[in-house]
Amino acid sequence: MEENQMMTKSGNRERNHEDLSGIGFQLMALMFRVRSIIHPPKNRLNEIGIVPGMVVVDYGCGPGSYVKDASAMVGTEGQVYAADINPLAVQSVQTLMKKHGLTNVIPVKVDGYSSPIADHTADLVYALDMFHAIGDSDTFLKELHRITKPGGVLVIDDGHQPHEDAKEKILQSGIWTIVEDGETWMRCTPVGTE
Question: Which of 34, 36, 59, 131 is the most buried (most CB within 10 A)?
Answer without folding.
Answer: 59
